Amino acid sequence: MSLPKALLFDMDGTLIDSEIYWQTAETRLFESLGEVWKPEISDQLAGRSLVDAIGIMSAATGVDLDPASAIEFLINSVHQQVSEGGAPWLPGALETLQLAKTLGVKTALVTSSYRQFTQSVVDQAFPGAFDAVVCGDEVKYAKPHPEPFLKAAELLNVEITECMAFEDSPSGSRAAIASGALTCIVPGVNPVPSGLDALYIEGLKVITAEWLENTWSNHRK
To answer: Percent of the chain having pLDDT more than 90?
Structure first.
């Protein structure tokens, strides 16, 4: 079979439907400050680094947030929610990870979320679901910079051009495309504009062994 050497997955919005957890955390943050959060702002934060997200939140609300304190609050809140409510896996997510294991294709989680929250999700997948994990607090440059995907390929000991990446946000998609990976875009809360050098798919539920082989073979022609 003609297959990629590795599959690189974004987390929020691609593998898990964590938006409600982040919105709850954001609401709690502003309540703790005696302020009111505007949930409609959340869509602008998808795929952003937490540092960038805090800047957007401050600009949009006029509340001068302390980045370090705000990030710590959000991470603790989301971590607590995942620990209590479980990781809300999207359709096809765990099945695709298991398929990769069956086919001998390496996998990596490439996320802007920080290690504490990310690890709580990884721990709720099946053992060995990810061969590498790259978090937002473990890179110098976050998405939309390609560094997170390039680091994942390095950790997996594969060339980035031998990888397929899966993303749902404009920021993450730009990072994946810039890295050189074949990029597949799934629908997200902040839709990715059409016309990018990527494949637009319905979601991870479309992925089968035949789909992977056909998609990769067509890409390599």
So the answer is: 76
Rounded to two decimals, what is the model's pTM?
A: 0.88
Which of 125-129, 185-189, 191-195 is predicted most confidently?
A: 125-129
pLDDT band per the 50, 70, 90 thresholds, residue 49: confident
Q: What is the 3-state secondary structure (H, E, C) of the chain?
A: CCCCCEEEECCECCCECCHHHHHHHHHHHHHHCCCCCCHHHHHHHCCCCHHHHHHHHHHHHCCCCCHHHHHHHHHHHHHHHHHHHCCCECCCHHHHHHHHHHHCCEEEEECCCCHHHHHHHHCCCCCCCCCEEECHHHCCCCCCCCHHHHHHHHHHCCCHHHEEEEECCHHHHHHHHHHCCEEEECCCCCCCCCCCCCEECCCHHHCCHHHHHHHHHHHHC
With 80 as the cut, is the pLDDT of residue 69 above it?
Answer: yes
pLDDT in tens, 132-171: 999 999 999 999 999 999 999 999 999 999 999 999 999 9
List the end-to-end C-alpha distance of the chain, in Å, as a whole number: 15
Which of 92, 108, 136, 97 has its CA nearest to residue 8?
108
